[in-house]
Amino acid sequence: MELRVAEFNLDCGGLRGGLDGARGDYDFSGLVDAMHDDWPDILVLCEGAFYSHNGGAGAFGAAAAMREAGGRAYTPLPGTLTGGRGPLAPVVYVDPQTVTVRHWYSGHEPDHFTARSNLLVFTLPGSTQRRYLIAVHFDVRSHIARIHDAETLRPWANPATPCLIAGDFNSHPSGPHWRVTNFDQTPSWRHMSKTRFPPEIDTDGTARPVCDTEPLDRLLGVWHEPTGRRVGGAGFLDVAELVGDYTPTVNPSPAAFGPMTLDRFLVNDALTDAVTDYRVRLPADPQRPPSSHRRISLTLDL
Q1: Largest CA distance in the chain
Q2: Domain residue limits at 295
Q3: Any idea what the Cα angle at residue 72 is, between residues 119 and 278, rounded to 5°?
Q4: Which residues neighbour 32 within 8 Å (Cβ) at sequence distance 6 or greater?
Q5: What is the pLDDT of residues 246-257, one digit of tens each?
Q6: Which helix (H) or strand (E) covers residue 132, if one does?
């Protein structure tokens, strides 16, 4: 059976006015546009601003908007951000006609373990094989916080638990395809959201920001230039790298650091051979994209 999964970071979940906007005043047109009438079995939506508040009005409102646009009747599963970082947590949307939810660990449970944050355990029709999906949104504050986020995921590299990780990693791995070099175009106070500390220091005392690759390298491995492969990681593989598609997932803008692929799917060895398709969905109107991020899509043959 084919399982189709999508990830999309909708700026502030469509909340008009961003985090300073009126609670409950959402515009879901960007979400509907990003779907392009292509409705996955599972959607990981990042930045669900206040989606759990007021009886889940935001989470259910987004589900209703997709349904009214001709989409599936999704069930929303609101999650949390690590470290209690605020109300911009991922929300996983599941089509219960094609995916059977066995467990959903949101992070709000009284018996919560950090390693099970935003964890969906599910089966597919006609199968008792349990599979695992984790929705993530790595910390934007610093590379130290992102390392903590990455290490939380390390146990899920175990191939005994077929696991897919989807979300916004706020960082790149090492390697020639993921280099970001134009930090000079952005103010220094924003650099730590995508760089590590300390920076490189030139002989004249000029600080050169360095792209933060350690969090993802801990999961994927460090790029080894002589052999052209990764070494030393936990055991995950990046789907975009696996299929050779290096299309940026962030739309060009003056506020961006250049071409960035922050949205990713990671799989462990149990799911590597199941990957049959991966795509970055470009906005229908590049001048008016539905979000600063692009939707990514994955098909697994399970």
Answers
A1: 66
A2: 2-301
A3: 60
A4: 65, 66, 69, 71
A5: 999 999 876 666
A6: strand 131-137
Spatial CB neighbours of 208, under 8 Å, sequence gap ≥ 6: 183, 199, 200, 201, 202
CA-to-CA distance for 261 and 282, rounded, in angstroms?
13
155 three-state secondary structure: helix
Domain containing residue 156: CATH number: 3.60.10.10
Residue 37 one-letter amino acid: D
**Can you tell me the distance from the alpha carbon of 28 to that of 286, in angstroms, rounded to the nearest whole number?**
18
Distance in angstroms (rounded) separating the CA atoms of residues 103 and 61: 23
Give the 3-state DSSP-derived string for 178-206, with helices as H, strands as E and coil as C. Answer: CCCCCHHHCCHHHHHHCEEEEEEECCCCC
Is pTM beyond 0.90 here? yes
**Count of domains in the chain?**
1
Digit-coded pLDDT (tens) for 92-132: 999 999 999 999 999 888 888 888 899 999 999 999 999 99
Residue with tokens 């539905």: 290
178-181's contacts with Cβ under 8 Å and 24+ in sequence apart are: 178/211, 178/213, 178/246, 178/261, 179/211, 180/211, 180/257, 180/258, 180/259, 180/260, 181/211, 181/258
